[in-house]
Amino acid sequence: MGFTFVSFGFIFMNSLKIQEIADQRFADEQFLHELSVQLRDIQEPLEAYLSTFSSSSLSQLLFATETLREALPDERPIYNDFSELMRRDIYFLMDTYLLRVDLLVDQKRGRKVSSYTQGFEELSILYNYIVERIDEVSLRGFRNQLGEYRNFLVLFRKMQMYSLLLIMLIMALAFSILMKNVNTISKPLFELSGMAAQISSGNLDLPDINTPSVKEINHVSMAFNDMKKSIAHYIEELKKQKNIEQQIMTERVRNLKMEQLLKRMELYTMQAQMNPHFLFNTLNTGVQLAIVEKAEKTADFMENLAALFRYNIREKKFFVSLRHEVEGMQSYFNILKIRFPHSLSLIMDVQEELLDRYSAPVMVLQPLVENSILHAFKDRERLGTVTLSIRYENPFLRISVKDDGVGIPEKTVKALLTPHTHDYQLSSKVMGLENVIQRCYFFYPDEQNVIEINSNNDLGTEIIININTEVEPCIEF
Fold first, then answer.
1. Does residue 443 contact residue 453 with C-beta atoms inside 8 Å?
2. Residue-level pLDDT at 281
3. Which segments within 323-436 are labelled E, that is strand?
4. Are 373 and 399 in contact (CB under 8 A)?
5. Confidence check: pLDDT of 57 > 60
């Protein structure tokens, strides 16, 4: 009994020593894991702060750095053990990491973009290096623990053989207890192995491991459960990013539809044009013939017609100077004045200094004047007057075409002022006034009053284009 007591006492003391060593190993590993988590808690808000200048990210960053400083040990003695030396190096690397974090915060506050951008890249390299070192120390500690476990296992087997000669029953009972404890450890490890295999195959919809075991194994199980959740969260974030990219592609498709709409409008305009060389040669021949025959009005008519066609054909820009628009409109009106010398009158109230200073959408004045002449004075015998006014009221350039004709019905005004969406199907009848209105809406989508129509029955119509000179027109796709 005395020998058995001594044997079990020896076994008991060594068991306590094993537990102490194992506890210390797992405590060290847990401490390194917590340091790794704290590093990640610094890295993520730091990246968010440098990207967005967020005060909440700065608060999280300052709290995380202070927590890490408090966690690092002040005393760092030098040991002969290589793992302890690596752990000591990790502590100094973390000190350097914290100093660089403080430097990046100061550079961000000082708006030194290039400095903190390059500094963050270097800090990310240091962060990855520290994490690798922590993993290396953890792996080395785990291997050392396995070696110590094997040594103690050999010792236990010798003690069991010696004790087996004395008390078979007691050793049998001890063996049964030992097997039970081993099963307590091996079962969760087996579950961990099986779950790791399923995760590697892409199955993340697995329940957490909650099998009770020793504290160290429980810590490993908890860390594994956290890792599984982190992977699932990362995959979910990737899916969200994919959805955002899909939305961006949808928006690009909508922009392409708008571009196709404008291309169709341009095609319709091009189809309505005549061959410019044939047209100008023919008109010049007509002008020369009229001069030879001393038909001054005919020559004047032909010259204005040539100027009008040249204005309509040569210009392919979206915006032109006001002078170019006014000259094209003047040529058009001169032609009509020759045709209707006693029934049309044009009044121009234009500030000369505005013509070369500002620009306007191409082909807006002629369609407005044409609309007044074709519709406002229809079936009327008396003189019709069209007034063109161009004024600058900071920051708006106001272009007004006013007539004293029959007016436009209110229902038609509302229909004309309705913006067309990108799904609007363009018809061959969309010309003149409606074309001008829709192009103004397209060029200035955020300006609600870019076009105004004031009309009264038998009193006339005034169409006003309000161009905000401080806003860039939307002319690129």
1. no
2. 52
3. 344-350, 359-361, 384-393, 396-403
4. no
5. yes
* Topology annotation, domain 2-248: Four Helix Bundle (Hemerythrin (Met), subunit A) (1.20.120)
Percentages (nearest 5) of helix, strand, coil residues in the chain: 70, 10, 20
Of 34, 67, 61, 40, nearest to 49 by C-alpha is 61
* Angle between helix 215-271 and 2-52 (nearest 10): 20
**Distance in Å from the first CA to the final CA of the chain:** 96
Asked if 360 and 419 count as a contact pair (C-beta separation under 8 A), the reply is: no
* E strand map for 394-459: 396-403, 451-456
- What span, in angstroms and rounded, lies between the C-alpha atoms of 53 and 185? 48
The CATH superfamily assigned to 315-468 is Histidine kinase-like ATPase, C-terminal domain (3.30.565.10)
Is pTM beyond 0.70? Reply is no
Pairing verdict, β 396-403 and 451-456: unpaired
The label of the residue with tokens 């955020």 reads 446
The share of the chain scoring above pLDDT 70, in percent, equals 76
Q: Where are the domains of the chain?
A: 2-248, 315-468
Tell me the per-residue pLDDT of 415-459, one tens digit each, with 9 for 90 and over: 888 886 544 444 433 357 888 888 888 888 888 889 999 998 878
SS3 319: strand
The overall average pLDDT reported for the chain is: 77
